[in-house]
Amino acid sequence: MAREHEAAILPQKGGPFALGKRPTPEPGPNDVLIEVKAVALNPCDYYQRDYGMPPVPIYPAIIGSDIAGIVAKLGSNVTTVPGPGSRVIAFASSFYQNGSPDHGAFQKYTLAQSEAVTSLPESLSFEEGAVFPMAVLTSLTAWTTVGIPLDTRYTPADKQAVLIWGASSSVGTFAVQSAKALGFTVYATASPKHHDLIKKLGAHAVFDYKASDVISQIVSAVKNDGVKLHTAHCVVDGALQPTLDILKETKGDAHAKVAHSPLLPEGHPTLENTQIKFNSPPMDKAARGEHIKDVFHGWLKTGLQSGEVIPSPAIQVEDGGLGGVHAALDKLKSGVSGTKIVVPI
């Protein structure tokens, strides 16, 4: 194995990235060293590049989180991940590693904590595999944030429904897939051009969020279907008020729960007897590790093996390798709809 590798290094806040060499690290006891074959891009990547948020404690920095690749070496304590040569996907962020540049996706070799590494089925390409990590982690964390365990399995007799506002984003598509697995009847919003995809992923009904009467449309559908809607996931900004307007009509006397993936603004709207929580993994390191393990070694591994969990949304491949990440992030920043940008490395 090479003693050093190529990396897209962020020299200071605002970028741009510089291509350079970094020493290839040895994995710590609980780490997996992975040869990166594809990275997927997320909005938080250009926020970190441009604004240093979420916080980047060390410059030069290596950012990015979503990878698919090949196991190069296992740490001495790792027993849950297949050995060298195996195809895997991983959440390889440096965010929970105090900014350590040995972690972070935008380089040819990176470390990931073993809890956040799972096998990539032969039926999926590296590009398809790279779309899962952050979107799956975010969408499943929404449920546990509002107290819904990942082993929940409602039956049709329970009549439990959920609203997912912003279902065509990568997080939204996995929110739909995971909500269906939990046994919810799923109501979702998206642009009309994405409705077929959202239904294919498991939504019972999909609504155009721009329709002037979208709130009454959803309330009527829920009442006609005779289900109980008092749970929601706001995936995108601007979703909280309409979501609360719907819950006000559908929750009855029940305690309602709303997971909010964007940062909650100061003075955000509220609703009586309704819990509104920012979607975030546990702050405690041990609890967070257990949660990440539940997501990657539980729900995702099982779903990938059974074929019930599929890559979503559509993939937009951008060329240029590590040298193309900067331009690809600019494309993401300028706006994409219903697609996930992936860069082969």
What does this structure look like?
By secondary structure, this protein is α/β, with parallel strands linked by helices. The protein folds into 2 domains: 4-131 and 313-344, Medium-chain alcohol dehydrogenases, catalytic domain (Quinone Oxidoreductase, Chain A, domain 1); 139-278, Rossmann fold (3-Layer(aba) Sandwich), CATH 3.40.50.720. The protein has 9 helices and 15 strands. The protein has helices at 43-51, 126-129, 133-145, 170-182, 195-200, 214-225, 240-250, 285-306, 325-334; strands spanning 4-9, 18-23, 31-40, 66-74, 87-91, 109-113, 117-119, 160-165, 185-190, 205-208, 228-234, 256-260, 274-278, 314-317, 339-344. The strands form 3 sheets. Strands 3, 4, 5, 6, 7, 14 and 15 form a 7-stranded mixed sheet that branches. The relative contact order is 0.15.
Summarize the structure.
This protein is an alpha/beta fold and about 350 residues long. It contains 9 helices and 15 strands.
Domain tally: 2
**So, CATH architecture of the largest domain?**
Alpha-Beta Complex
Uncertain parts: none
Q: What count of helical segments does DSSP give? A: 9
The proportion of residues forming helix, as a percent range, comes to 25-40%
Strand content: 25-35%
> H/E order of the elements?
EEEHEEEEHHEHEHEHEHEEHEHE
- CATH class division of the largest domain: Alpha Beta
Domain Enoyl reductase (ER): 14-343
Pfam families: ADH_N, ADH_zinc_N
GO molecular function: oxidoreductase activity, acting on NAD(P)H
Protein name: Chaperonin 10-like protein
